[in-house]
Amino acid sequence: MMKILTATGMFFLGGMMFTACGSEGTNGQEQTAEKEVYQCPMDCEDGKTYDHEGQCPLCEMDLKKIDA
User: How many domains does the chain have?
Assistant: First the structure.
């Protein structure tokens, strides 16, 4: 019984190693689509950004698009 459990465990561990090593990743660099980010021009909230256009909730100025 112990041999069967050991063999099953080794089979699953071996399978996990091969699937983890076989993926063609980006070497830790995520490729994300560039999304628009907006921020208050007065920086009322110390660097807080928004994902949509609109007005700053504190000073009510129009949010400006910034480079992310």
Answer: 1
